[in-house]
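Incident log, entry 3
Record: Dihydropyrimidinase (472 residues)
Problem: checksum mismatch between cached and fresh output.
Input:
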Amino acid sequence: MPAFDLVIRNARAVTASDIFDCDIAVKDGRIVQLGQGLDGGAREIDAAGRHVTPGGVDAHCHLDQPEPPPVRMADDFDTGTRSAACGGTTTVIPFALQHKGQTLRAAIADYHQRAEGKAHVDYAFHLIVSDPTPAVLEEELPALIREGYTSFKIYMTYDSLKLDDGQILDVLAVAREHGAMAMIHAENADCIEWLSKRLEAAGRTAPRWHAHARPMLVEREATHRAIALSELVDVPILIVHVSGAEAVEQIRWARAHGLNVFAETCPQYLFLSAEDLGIDDSYEGAKCVCSPPPRDKRNQQVIWNGLADGLFTVFSSDHAPYSFDGSEGKKPGGEEVGFRHIPNGIPGIETRMALLWSEGVMAGRITPQKFVELTSTNPAKAYGLHPRKGSLAVGADADLVVWDEREFVLSNGQLHHNVDYTPYEGMHLTAWPGITLARGEVVWDGRDFTGQRGAGRFLHCGMPTLMPRRRG
Ligand code: DUC
Ligand code: ZN
Ligand code: ZN
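Fresh output:
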C-alpha cells in the first residue's frame, strides 16, 4: 500500500519567500511531506525540475452576478471555475451582491445556490454592501463576519451600489469593531456623471469615451477620500483595481504615514491601455470597457514598479465576463450602445496567472516568490484563508501548479470561459500551467480540463492576517 495518494517528484517549489528542490507528498487532499526521496505514492507526477507554485487565489472575480435584463454574465460557477482551474487558480472569491432593500442573508443564500454543486474549485464570498441599514450594520454584518464572511466591498460609484461618505464611515466602523477587511472601489461618482453628460451632449458616445468619462483624477480623488475615511475610523482598507500613477501616489503617501492601506491591481492595468477602447468610433473597443479604465504605457510602468516594490499586496483578475456578440453582453439587446450603457468588465480569470508569470517572472520584472505572494499567499492572508490556502507547506491544501515554460500565442479558442473573446488575443506568452491540482486532484492536465462539477467546496473565511490583530 503506497504511503501517499500522490507524490510530485523533482519539483522546484516556490513559496512567497523561498525556492527549493523537493518532492511533495499529498494525502487526503493535503500536503503531508516535503523532502528528498520520499516514499511512493499511489500516483506519481515527475515535475522534472519545473517550478511548482501554490494554486492561485483569485480574490476579485464576478461570477453569475445578477444584472438587469437583458444583460447577463457569461460565466456561472461551472464555466467560471473551470476556466480558473485551467489557468492555475484553485480558489476564487467572488462577490455576493446585496441589492438595495435586500438583506445580506438573502444575498448570500442566493449566491450559495448559484455556486453549490457547480463549482470546480473551492470558493468563498465577499459581500457587497449597498444598503447599510441599521439592521445590516448592527446585526447582519457582525453576525456574518462571525460566520466566515469576513470581507466586504464598498462602492464609491455606480448608482445602484454607491455609498456616500457617511455610509462608508458607518461600514468601516463595523469593519474596525469586528476585524473585517473592507475593499473599496474608488472612483468619484459625481465627476463621472458630470463628465458623462457633457460627453453625451457633444455626441461622444463611442466606447473610447468611457476612458474620458473616468480620467485618472476621479480615481485619485476617491482614493484620497477613501484613505482619509479609513484614517478617521482607524481601520485597514484594501483599494481594489488600482489603475495608475495618481492613485499609487495616494497609497504611497498613506503607507509612508503609517496607515494600513493595502492595494490590489489587475492584468488590464499592465497590458491594456485607453487605446484598446478605440482610437476611432469602432465598437470593438467595448471589449475592453472596464472601470477604472486602462490608462497608458507610463501608468503601466508605474503599476509594474508597484508590483515589484511591494506597494501592491494583491494581484486579481476582476473577471467580469460579458460576451461581445449576442444580446446579453457588450451589446445589450443586440444593440451597439453608448459608452455609459456598455456593461463594465472584461474576462481574465484564466489568463491572470500566466500573464504575470510570462511578463513578470519570465521577463525578469518580478521574482517567482513575488509572483506567489501576489497571486496566492497575500490574497489568502487578506481574506482569512491562509495557511490552508496560498501556501506550499505541510498541512496546506494540495492546491498546486506545475508550470510549463514554453512560447505560444494566446487565443480565445484555448480558453475555457464562456466568453467569446479575450482582450489578450494574439499576445505572445512564455508560460502556462502544465498541471493544476485542487486538493490533490488533477483538474487541468495541460491539455484538458479534468475536474469535477461540484467538487469545489465553500470556505468559511477567518480573520485577515496581513496585519497584526488589533488588541483592545
Ligand atoms: N469594474 C468593476 O468595478 N467591477 C466589475 C468590472 C469592472 O469593470
Ligand atoms: Zn470595482
Ligand atoms: Zn470587480
